[in-house]
User: Fold this.
Amino acid sequence: MEEQNFKQQFQEMAQNLPKGIFHRLPLKKLQGVPVMNIIADHFENIATFQARPDDLLVATYPKAGTTWVQEIVDMIDKEGDAEKCQRAPTFVRFPFIDIWPPPPLIPGVVDAEKMPSPRILKTHFPFHLVPKSFWEQNCKVIYVARNAKDNAVSYYHFDVMNQTQPEPGTWEEYLIKFMEGNVGWGSWYDHVKRYWEKKDQHRILYLFYEDMKENPEQEIRKVMEFMEKDLPDHVISKIVQQTSFSAMKENPMANYTTVPKVFLDHSLSSFMRKGEVGDWKNHFTVAQNEVFEEDYKKKMAGTSLRFRTEI
Ligand code: A3P
Assistant:
């Protein structure tokens, strides 16, 4: 029932939007990082956001497993009560602070201001664009990183279905843009490296999508300890089950199917698409892989950060 209410509410809102207002928004450089124009044009309102010391920020490069870790965090926070986690879709439960959409939509930071503490917030900003108050307030941050190849494949499919992002073009064209950092929220390479460098100077829990796939219970326990919670084994097992790909794919409050087609067109690709490690092998040609690897070595030289592209 709730699902239908949300669907209807968003549908009505979408019907009242000026036509094309969110369609394939152009990217604009913000301090060197390409972002949607609705972010760049209002960044002063976002950068001055006041974090609270008990905020928990989920930070990721797009398509690294944001929604997954958000569900895990919520299930831990609600001590395994799946019904409580079904109270609203992901994007309502966790304000996305980066976006400043035109009315009648409400910017994430405005939504967050009205929220009681403790808040769980989401950002895709690279480290240097995160509002300074998060660091001043010593907030906890959970960062999830995913190997570049799977991340690129997932982002490509997302940009096919996400009507607010620029047209991805062909996979071949997209891969070049990804390598150049010419996609929304910029360079994957800079993003993952910078949070990695900063993780010991701040309260940042740095997780990997591949580890979460390989051993979800172990990674869920890390998140639980970071959140200073102590849940019994049977609750942890329930969280593992409830946050599995198959469960989340069927969960309308986690799978983004309540979002109207003008934003996300699920007939082109699903938000919960495959949820695998190694799907890149189905998309990269041998030649693309060679070029990618060569470029990767240069861009990732000098960092101790290591990824797995298969498990
Ligand atoms: P794929 O496109 O490879 O399927 P984000 O939430 O950051 O936008 O990331 C979305 C990606 O995470 C999608 O990847 C989606 O399927 C995957 N994902 C979401 N929930 C997941 C889960 N419970 N287990 C594994 N992958 C999940």
